[in-house]
Specification:
Elements (H helix, E strand, L loop, with lengths): L30 H10 L11 E4 L10 H5 L4 E9 L2 E4 L12 H15 L13 E6 L3 H13 L15 E6 L15 E4 L7 H5 L1 E7 L15 H13 L4 E4 L5 H10 L3 E4 L2 H14 E3 L22 E7 L4 H10 L11 E6 L10 H10 L20 H7 L3 E9 L3 H4 L11 H5 L2 H4 L3 E5 L2 H5 L11 E3 L9 E5 L14 H13 L6 E7 L1 H8 L2 H24 L3 E6 L3 E2 L2 E7 L4 E6 L4 E2 L3 E7 L7 E4 L1 H10 L7
Parallel strand pairs: 1-2, 1-9, 2-4, 4-5, 5-6, 6-7, 7-8, 11-17, 11-18, 12-24, 13-14, 13-17, 14-16, 15-16
Antiparallel strand pairs: 2-3, 10-21, 12-23, 18-23, 19-22, 20-21
Amino acid sequence: MTSFPRKYIRAYACAFFIMTAASSTVQGQSLEQQFEKLMFSREQQQDTHAYAAHSHNDYWQPQPFFTAYYAGMQSIEADVFLQDGELMVAHDKHEITKERTLRNLYLDPVAKLYQQNGGHAFRDSSKKLQLLIDVKENYRALLPILIKQLESYGPIFNPVQNPNAIKIIISGSRPRPEGFKEYPSWLLFDGEVDWTYDDSSLAQTALISAGISDYTDWNGKGLPDNVEGMQRAIAKADSLGLPFRFYGTHDGPNSWLFLINQGVYWINTDQPKALEIFLKEQPRASFQAKQFQPTYQPSFQHDGADRPAKRILLLIGDGMGLSAVKAAKAANGGKLSMTNMRATGLSQTEALNTDNTDSAAGGSAIATGRKTNNRAIAVDENGNPQISVASLLSQKGWKTAIISTGDITDATPAVFYGHHIERNESRALLDNFPQSGIDILIGGTPSWAKRDTTFKGYPNIPVTKNILRSDADRQIVFLADSLTRPVKDGRKDILLQSLKGAITHLSHAQKPYFIMAESAQIDYAGHANDVTYSITETLDLDMTVSEVLKMADADPEMLVIVTADHETGGMTVLDSDYRKGRVRVQFSSNDHTNDFVPVFAYGARSFLFQGVYDNTEVFHKLLKATEQQEVK
C-alpha cells in the first residue's frame, strides 16, 4: 500500500482515513486560543515533589524578611544576639544596630501579614511558614526572653494551640535533645545527624540540619565526593520522619537540582528570588517517564547509496532544537530512532532581517532555498513569490503532500504551498493552494474555516473533515481540534496515520512522491516552557520516524530527512538519568532562539545532509538528491 516498487511493498493494514472526534475543542478553546495561553500564561502546574525553600542568613537581604517572604520562602533564618535585654539580629556583634531587632525585622511583620491573611502565614492557606532563630550565644539567657516575646503575640507562634501557627525553630546555640523538655512544647529545635532522640525530644525537633563542609568540599559543579555520606545523613532524617537541610551549599540550578534529587527537603539559599524562579519552573521543567517507547534500529542496507531519491519524506519538528532531542532521548531510556541515523548535520536558521528566525522565515528557507524576513511566507524581501521544493517537484511530475499536527495554514506547512508577506493571512495563504500543484493538504482547521459555513473549498479540490477521500487526486483534509490536541492531553498517532494515508493515496499513481510532515507542537511546548509537552511531542515524531525508517529499509530509492525550522524556548538539559527516564531542563526564553538545529538523514544520498550549513541548503540538497547522475 506504499508507492515502493512492488517487490519492496510492505503491507500496512489501515483503512485510512475515517477518524472520530471526541470533542471539537480542547476544553472549549480553539488552537489559536490554546497557543496564546501557552505563550503568555505562567500558570503553575501542581508540584508533588517534596522540597521547599529556606532563606539562609536572611537578614543580609536588602529587605530582610520581605524579600524571602514574597519570593515564597517557607523557612526564613535570622541570627540573634541578646544585648541589654533586647533580641538583636546580626551575624556578628559588631554588626548590631539598635533598629535591627528581631521584633522589628521579623516578628511584627509576620504578625501583621498573618492577620491580613485571615489567620494564615500566606494568602495561599496551604503554605506554612517557619522562622529559624539561629542563637549566636548563651541560649540559656536568650531563650526565656524570646519565649516571652513570642507569647505576647498570642497563638500566632504556638502550633500546639493553633494548627496554622508560624513555627519557631531554634538553631545554633541550643540544648541537646535531653534539654528540649525544659522549654514549652510549642518551641521547636533544629536537630543534628549524630544526636539521639527519644519520643519526647523528637516531638520538639522540626528538622535535621548539617553543614555541607562536614561531608564534602563540593563547589556546586558536577557531583560532590562522598555522596554516600551525604545520603546517609539524609537517610537519618528520613528514618526519624524529619525534613533535612544542608547549610553552606552553593547557590545555583545544578546544586539545587542535585539536592532535590538526593531527597533534601529544605533547599538552602542566599538567593531567594533566583530559587523561587527555579522551584516554580520545576513542575514544567521536570519529566519522569512511566514507560519507554520502542525505537527502530535501521539496517543501513541502502543508506548512503548514490542513487536518485524517488520517494522523499521530510519530517520537520517545529521548534525542535538539539536539547529537545536530547531531552526526549534521555526520557526514553537513552534511545531514539532519529538518533540512530548515521548521516547527521547542523542547520543554521538565521532569517534575512534578523538572526533570530521565526517559523515563517525558517520554513521558507527550507522550502524555497532562499532567505526571507520573519513573518514572510515563501516570498523574497520584495514580496515576490518563491517556488517551494514541493511545487517544483510537482511540476516535474512528482506527487506531493503536506501534513501538520497544527493549523494547516500556520507558517511551516504554508511555506510549501502559499506566498504572502504576512504569516497571519490564513485565508489568503490557503487561497494559494490550488495554484501550488500540491496534491494533498492535511492538518488542523483554521478558525475562519470553522466560522465560515459557506466555505466549500475550491473548484475540483474537495475539502473534507477527518477523511482522506480515495476518489479525489487533489484535496484538503481539515482535522478536528480533538485530533490535534497535545499528545499529553490524549492525541493519538495522527501524524503517523496521516503520513501512512498520504503514502497509500499517492502511491496509486506509481510516480515519485514528496511529503512534508510537520510535528507542529514541539514549538508550542517551547513557548510554554513545558518539558513534558516537548518530550511527548518529540517522541510522537520519533514514533513516526521509526515507521519511515522501516519503509526506507525496504525501499532503496527512499530518502528520509528529519530536521527543524528553528529552536524554541532556549532549552538546556541540566540533568538526566537514562535508566530512570528522568529529565530536568531549564528554559531561557518563551520564544524562538538562534541555536543550531539538527538534521538527520537516511536512505538514498543521505550523505548530502552531513556537515554544518545554512538552512537554505536543505532545499538544494533535496533537489540534488533527485538528480539522475551520480552526485558524489
